Amino acid sequence: MELSDISLNDFHLIRGRQAANEDISFVIHFDTSFYVTHFVLGDTLNTSKQNPWAPSLNTYRLYYQDRDQSESGYIGKNQQYNFFEMAFRKSFLDGLVEEDELLADKLFSRFGKEEYRNAPASPIIPDMYSCLGAMDSKVFTGPLQQLYLETKARELLLLQIQTLMKTESAVSTLKPADIDCLHEAKHYIERNYRRPCSIIDLAKIVGINQTKLKRGFKELFGTTVFGYVRDLQMERAKQLLLEEGLYVSEVADQVGYNHPQHFTVAFKRKFGVLPSELKNS
User: Fold this and answer.
1) CB of 189 closer than 8 Å to CB of 161
2) pLDDT in tens, 57-95
3) C-beta of residue 102 within 8 angstroms of C-beta of residue 96
4) Is the domain defined by 2-124 classed in CATH 2.60.120?
5) HTH araC/xylS-type domain location, by residue (predicted)?
6) Rounded to whole angstroms, what are the CA distances from 93 to 34, 50, 83, 246, 266?
7) HSE-up (13 A, CA, CB side) for residue 48
8) Helix or strand run (H / E) with residue 203
9) Which of 96, 103, 173, 255 has the least C-beta neighbours within 10 A?
10) How far apart are the C-alpha atoms of 99 and 14, rounded to whole Å?
11) 152, HSE (Cβ side, Cα atoms, 13 Å)
12) How far is it between the farthest Cα atoms of the chain?
């Protein structure tokens, strides 16, 4: 496991990458209790009997990690998992919501789930991705860089709180059966994003009509069907460029683009840089 841990006032910023050349089970023990927001930024993990809680790409979870509760995990052969998380002390969260009792109740209720596997997953929205990307930038040095990271961390958490409030205030018209179909559609996309099918075909595959698929997917996951396909393609492309050293045309083909120039435009729109620039950085 590769970890980068930045310690700031009352919280930590952690980027990690787990990879395995063989099946590995592991257990993590903690010295301190803390509140966590965990972002899944890239993975090739598959749900299995050994790993029934395999995370979904482009989602985040809020949960409470008790120091007396260890965390177990599993990574299969040739699989990998990239993540970012913020770990807070209670004093940090108290400082954000101390004057709003209703918001504090909602926030701590959402954090009330113990362990990652028990916490509900929410989609990472574009503003969150922008914030996560900004925290990779070394804009300043010394104390100013620390202040910059603290500011971005607060911004990222506030985006999650804002999303939480919007979600709880919205009245959903989705039935349980519809939600099951939409999750099935999401999992199908994750397995087949390199060669995506049409909305018509996807609706038939998961057993839901086109209108419910389009509207329900947006409501449930915070993005469109094709927006989610593009996100998966771009995240995989970024991984291939940085870790596999492939040519841009090869990456374009592997993530489902017939024309490298169309891939280049989509990549620049997503990350703000050309794929060739990222490859050579």
Assistant:
1) no
2) 788 888 888 888 777 777 777 777 888 999 988 877 777
3) no
4) yes
5) 183-281
6) 11, 35, 22, 43, 37
7) 13
8) helix 199-206
9) 173
10) 29
11) 24
12) 56
CATH superfamily, domain 176-280, is Homeodomain-like (1.10.10.60)
Question: Which of 20-29, 163-172, 177-186, 256-265 is predicted least confidently?
Answer: 163-172
- Give the tokens for residue 179: 């939600």
Domain residue spans of the chain: 2-124, 176-280
In the chain the beta strands, taken as DSSP E runs, fall at 2-8, 11-19, 24-28, 34-43, 59-65, 71-75, 80-88, 121-123
- What is d(CA 64, CA 58) in angstroms, rounded to the nearest whole number? 20
**In the numeric block, which tokens belong to residue 124?**
């990472």
Report whether 84 contacts 15 (CB < 8 A).
yes
Coil, strand or helix at 229: helix
**Between vectors from CA 82 to CA 141 and to CA 92, what angle results, nearest 5°?**
55
Whole-number Å distance between alpha carbons of 160 and 155: 9
Question: What is the rounded CA–CA span in Å between residue 36 and residue 16?
Answer: 14
- Report DSSP state, residue 118: G
C-alpha separations of 208 from 175, 216, 220, 222, 233 in Å:
12, 10, 15, 18, 24
Q: Which sign, positive or negative, has the C-alpha torsion 208, 220, 111, 1?
A: positive
